[in-house]
Amino acid sequence: MPSSLTVLTIAGFDPSSGAGVTADLMVFAAHGLFGTSCITALTIQSTLGVLSSHPVSAENVRATLDCLHADLPPAGIKIGMLDTADNVAALADYLKAIRLHHSRVPVVLDPVLRASSGRELLGGEGLGVLRERLLPLVDWITPNLVELGVLSSQPVAIHSDLPAASRALQRFAGNEHLGVFATGGHLDPPDDFLLAPDGDEHWLPGERVETTSTHGTGCALSSAFLSRLVLGDTPLQAAVVAKRYVTEALRTAVPRGHGSGPLNLLWPLGTK
Ligand code: PLP
Asked: Which of 100, 127, 154, 223 has the fewest CB atoms inside 10 Å of its own CB, making it the most exposed?
């Protein structure tokens, strides 16, 4: 039976459906959850990369979040690409307001700074507002190695760099309850690292899947993690199951396009 729970993604629109809100909605559906979305930017891209990005105004982001919240309050929130400092501020205002009433709704932030094809998706000003206003309000952050390096101001290149950088990020966030789920897709082997809010540390062993269908891997992992948290898993269970889900989505992906293609996000529903 489908769940009655609604989850919300706040992210950019990728017309090639590899990343962003359309991908997140597929991940939610694959977990039996009903997804709503607030688009923060329209990107023009294909599997070959991002050509341009066009932010939605902060006014429209605010209006969308308020409108959805009044009718379809989310049981969990996933945050992805935000594009502008004004959008980060609008989201921080929303989270601050809902924290007053629904403090236990899990919020997972995927700090999208740059597309893997290279284009910047959040500028320096936006990053500053994210650090100051958003990090204190979220429960979990899912940085890749580059994002972890930027947010912790520490070099992150090899396995042994992850624990110290994750702890530094937790400290800098001004949020002692922030959990860090650092994704090591570029490590060999591609292990992930979990720093729980209580300080517990866990390595999640990964296996390399040889595929060109990797666009939106970070979006998929953070949305799957949020889905599992909403469904009642402990953080460690949620991380293990989300990683397994993404590995299978990579393994069963059919090549599409001429560049970095989408994952098979709906594999639990039997799609190819
Ligand atoms: N979110 C959106 C809307 C994007 O357009 C992108 C990249 O293009 C990403 C997230 C990040 O995805 P990836 O890391 O696969 O480039």
From this structure: 100
d(C-alpha 185, C-alpha 108), whole Å: 19
Residue 2 has pLDDT above 90, yes or no: no
**What tens digit of pLDDT does each residue of 99-143 get?**
888 668 999 999 999 998 899 999 999 999 999 999 999 999 999
| H/E stretch holding 54 | strand 49-55
List the one residue out of 206, 211, 223, 224 whose CA is nearest residue 260.
211
Give dist(CA 82, CA 159) in Å, integer. 29
CA 14 / ligand 1 centre spacing (Å): 7
Residue-number span of the structural domain to which 77 is assigned: 6-269
Cα dihedral across residues 23, 230, 40, 221: positive or negative: negative
- Model-level pTM? 0.97
Instruction: Spell out which residues line ligand 1, taking CB within 6 angstroms.
Output: 11-12, 14, 19-20, 43, 45, 50, 80-81, 112, 115-117, 215-219
Token pair recorded at residue 252: 């069963």
The number of distinct structural domains making up the chain is 1
- Pocket test residue of 16, 24, 43, 119 for ligand 1, highest count of atoms within 8 A of CB: 43
Nearest to 148 by CA among 167, 120, 124: 167
Determine, yes or no, domain membership for 197. Answer: yes
d(CA 91, CA 131): 13
At 101 the pLDDT is 81
